[in-house]
Automatic annotation (TrEMBL):
<dbReference type="GO" id="GO:0043590">
    <property type="term" value="C:bacterial nucleoid"/>
</dbReference>
<feature type="domain" description="RecF/RecN/SMC N-terminal">
    <location>
        <begin position="2"/>
        <end position="509"/>
    </location>
</feature>
<dbReference type="GO" id="GO:0006281">
    <property type="term" value="P:DNA repair"/>
</dbReference>
<dbReference type="GO" id="GO:0005524">
    <property type="term" value="F:ATP binding"/>
</dbReference>
<protein>
    <recommendedName>
        <fullName>DNA repair protein RecN</fullName>
    </recommendedName>
</protein>
<dbReference type="InterPro" id="IPR003395">
    <property type="entry name" value="RecF/RecN/SMC_N"/>
</dbReference>
<keyword id="KW-0067">ATP-binding</keyword>
<dbReference type="Pfam" id="PF02463">
    <property type="entry name" value="SMC_N"/>
</dbReference>
<keyword id="KW-0175">Coiled coil</keyword>
<keyword id="KW-0234">DNA repair</keyword>
<dbReference type="GO" id="GO:0009432">
    <property type="term" value="P:SOS response"/>
</dbReference>
<dbReference type="GO" id="GO:0006310">
    <property type="term" value="P:DNA recombination"/>
</dbReference>
<keyword id="KW-0227">DNA damage</keyword>
<dbReference type="InterPro" id="IPR027417">
    <property type="entry name" value="P-loop_NTPase"/>
</dbReference>
<comment type="function">
    <text>May be involved in recombinational repair of damaged DNA.</text>
</comment>
<feature type="coiled-coil region">
    <location>
        <begin position="328"/>
        <end position="362"/>
    </location>
</feature>
<keyword id="KW-0547">Nucleotide-binding</keyword>
C-alpha cells in the first residue's frame, strides 16, 4: 500500500508531503481544487508520460516520490526479473527536468517507463469515471471472469506459449514464402548447374587449353622454326655447337697461362653443356610435335564452351564459374534444408497446438464453473445498491482460433428489471447502473486479485442517498482486504472513511497553490456539514454530519 507521497514543483503544487495509512481514506474538495492534480502526480509515479506543462516553475525540476509498503504482496519475483533491489518499504521517484527529459527510480535504481508501468500495475488501481466503460470491453470482462476462475497461472502459461507459437507461425510463413520462390527458380538453377557440371571445369584449365590450342593451331610454323633452330645449332661447319667447340678448344690451350683464361674456359664449358641440352630439347620437341586435327577440335570446343559460360554468367575466369557452380549446388541443398526446416517447425507447432488446446480447455472449464458464483455475488451486492431485480447472463462460446485470452468469445448480458430481456451490458446499462456494477465488480475482484491499493475517483457519480450509503459500506468492506481511497462529493461516503483528506486552494497576490491536509474529528464534521448544506452551515447540517460520522 502507499504510505507516503511528496510532490515538488508539479502543476499548482509547490511543495506537498503527506502520509497515508491502511484502511479506507476519503479525499474531498471543491470542484477545481486540485484533486485531479493529485491523481496526475500519482500517475507519473506509476509510469504515465510527462511533459513540461507539468512543471510549476519551468526553471526547476519536478520531483514526485511515493513510498509503498509491499511486504505482504509477493512482489520479490518482479524485482528479481527486472534486476531491482527489493525493499519492504519501496520508494519510487519520478523527476521531470526543465529540458523536458524524464527520469524514474525504484529504490534509487534507474528504470524505464515500461518497467515502472509494470510495477505500477501491481501496486495501485486508479479507477476514474471514464474507466467505468471498461465493463463493456472484452479485456476487462475476461479479467473479471478469470479472476473468479483463478485462471491467472493458466493464462500466464497459455500466453507465454501463444507468444512462442505465433513467432513460429511467422517463421513458418517466411520459410514457406522462401520455399515457393525457391521452387520457382529451381528449374532454371538446375539447368544452369547441369550446364556447368557438363562442362567438367577444372581450376587453371583455361590457360592450359589456350596454350594447347595455340600449339595445335600452329604445328607447321612451330616445326619449321624448330628445324631451323636445330640446323643453326648443329650445322657441321658453321653451327653454333661447332663454333662453341672450336672456342672451347682454343681457351683450353691458354687456360694454364692465367687464372682469367681458366675462368673463361670454365664458363664457356658450362655454356656448351647448357647449349647441348637446349639442342637436345629442340630435337625432342620436334619429334613430339604431331599434327592432330581431332585434338585441336576437342580443345577448341572445350574453350568455346568455357567462353560461352563466362559470357553467360558475366565472369572472366574458370575459378569464378566454379564458384557459381558451388553456389548453385548449395541452393539445391538449401531447398532440401528449407523443406526439412518447415517440416520440423510444423511438427513443433503441432505440439504447441496440443498444449495450447489443453490450456484453453482448462481455462474454459474454469470459466464455466465460475459463472454461477460471479453472477450470484453480483446480484447480492447490487441488491444492496438499489438494483434488486438485476440479472446477469455470461455467454462463453468456444472458437477455433487462438485468442489472447484463450479460445473463448465472451458476452456479458444484463437485465435490470423483471420481465425485461437480456441485452449486451454496454448497450442496455445506464451510467448510474454501470457505476454500481463496476463498484460491485471491484469489490468481488478485491477478494481474488491481491492488489495493495485501489483509488475510486468519483465512482459515486449519479447516485445519492441510501445508495450512496451502501456504496460507502462496500468500499469500507473492501478496505479490510486492501487500502482504499475514495474521491467523493457525497457526505454519506465521506463519513465512512477511516481517514479524511481535504484538497483546497490558497491564493495570494503572487500565485495560487493546491494543498492537501488530513482532517481531525472537528474538521471532518465541518467538511461533511458543508457537503450536506453548502457554504452556509446550519446546526442541523452539523448535527447530521456528526450522526453520519457516528
Amino acid at each position: 500500500m502507499i504510505t507516503a507521497l511528496s510532490i515538488h514543483n508539479f502543476a499548482l503544487i509547490e511543495k506537498l508531503a503527506i502520509d497515508f495509512s491502511g484502511g479506507f481514506s476519503i479525499i474531498t474538495g471543491e470542484t477545481g481544487a486540485g484533486k485531479s492534480i493529485l491523481l496526475g502526480a500519482l500517475g507519473l509515479v506509476l509510469g504515465k508520460r510527462a511533459d513540461l506543462g507539468s512543471l510549476k516553475n519551468k526553471d526547476e525540476k519536478c520531483v514526485i516520490e511515493a513510498q509503498f509498503s509491499i511486504a505482504n504482496y509477493q512482489l520479490q519475483t518482479f524485482f528479481e526479473v527486472n534486476d531491482l533491489d527489493y525493499e519492504d518499504q519501496t520508494i519510487i521517484r519520478r523527476e521531470i527536468l526543465p529540458s523536458g527529459k524524464s527520469r524514474a527510480f525504484v529504490n534509487d535504481t534507474p528504470v524505464n517507463l515500461q518497467e515502472l508501468q509494470q510495477l505500477g500495475d501491481l501496486l495501485i488501481d486508479i479507477h476514474s469515471q471514464h474507466q467505468t466503460q471498461e465493463l463493456s470491453e472484452d479485456d476487462f470482462q475476461f479479467r473479471i471472469i478469470d479472476a473468479m476462475a483463478q485462471n491467472k497461472d493458466l493464462i500466464a502459461k497459455y500466453t507465454t506459449l501463444l507468444k512462442s507459437y505465433k513467432k513460429d507461425q511467422s517463421s513458418l510463413s517466411e520459410l514457406q514464402s522462401t520455399l515457393q520462390n525457391s521452387i520457382k527458380e529451381q528449374d532454371y538453377h538446375s539447368f544452369l548447374l547441369e550446364e556447368l557440371l557438363a562442362a567438367n571445369l577444372k581450376p587453371d584449365e583455361q590457360q592450359t587449353l589456350e596454350s594447347t590450342y595455340e600449339q595445335l593451331s600452329n604445328v607447321e610454323s612451330i616445326r619449321e622454326q624448330l628445324e631451323k633452330s636445330l640446323a643453326a645449332a648443329n650445322e657441321e661447319q658453321f653451327g653454333v655447337s661447332a663454333n662453341l667447340r672450336e672456342i672451347k678448344n682454343a681457351l683450353q690451350k691458354i687456360a694454364g697461362f692465367s687464372s682469367d683464361y681458366q675462368s673463361l674456359s670454365e664458363r664457356l664449358n658450362s655454356v656448351a653443356i647448357e647449349f647441348d641440352d637446349i639442342a637436345s630439347e629442340l630435337h625432342r620437341m620436334g619429334e613430339r610435335l604431331v599434327q592432330d586435327p581431332q585434338e585441336l577440335d576437342r580443345v577448341n570446343q572445350k574453350l568455346q564452351a568455357i567462353y560461352h559460360l563466362q559470357k553467360k554468367h558475366n565472369v572472366a575466369t574458370v575459378a569464378e564459374l566454379l564458384a557459381i557452380q558451388n553456389d548453385l549446388d548449395q541452393k539445391a541443398v538449401s531447398l532440401t534444408t528449407l523443406e526439412n526446416d518447415i517440416a520440423g517447425l510444423q511438427q513443433r507447432m503441432g505440439e504447441s497446438e496440443q498444449k495450447l488446446d489443453a490450456f484453453a480447455n482448462q481455462i474454459h472449464n474454469n470459466r464455466i464453473a465460475a459463472i454461477p458464483d460471479l453472477t450470484g455475488q453480483w446480484g447480492e451486492i447490487l441488491a444492496h445498491l438499489g438494483m434488486p431485480n438485476v440479472r446477469f447472463q455470461i455467454d462463453i462460446k468456444p472458437v477455433s482460433n487462438y485468442l489472447a485470452h484463450g479460445k473463448d468469445e465472451l458476452q456479458f448480458l444484463f437485465s435490470a428489471n423483471k420481465g425485461s430481456d437480456f441485452g449486451l451490458l454496454k448497450k442496455v446499462a445506464s451510467g448510474g447502473e454501470l457505476s454500481r456494477i463496476m463498484l460491485a465488480t471491484k469489490s468481488i475482484l478485491a477478494q481474488y486479485a491481491k492488489l495493495p491499493t485501489i483509488i475510486f475517483d468519483e465512482i459515486d457519480t449519479g447516485v445519492s442517498g441510501e445508495i450512496a450509503d451502501k456504496m460507502g459500506e462496500i468500499m469500507r468492506g473492501m478496505s479490510k482486504q486492501m487500502q482504499v481511497f475514495a474521491i467523493t462529493h457525497l457526505p454519506q461516503i465521506a463519513a465512512k472513511g477511516d481517514d479524511h483528506f481535504k484538497v483546497f486552494k490558497t491564493s495570494d497576490d503572487a500565485q495560487t497553490q493546491t494543498r492537501l491536509k488530513r482532517l481531525d474529528r472537528e474538521q471532518r464534521v465541518m467538511e461533511i456539514a458543508q457537503m450536506l448544506s453548502g457554504s452556509a452551515l446550519s446546526d442541523s447540517a452539523i448535527n447530521h454530519a456528526k450522526a453520519l460520522l457516528d
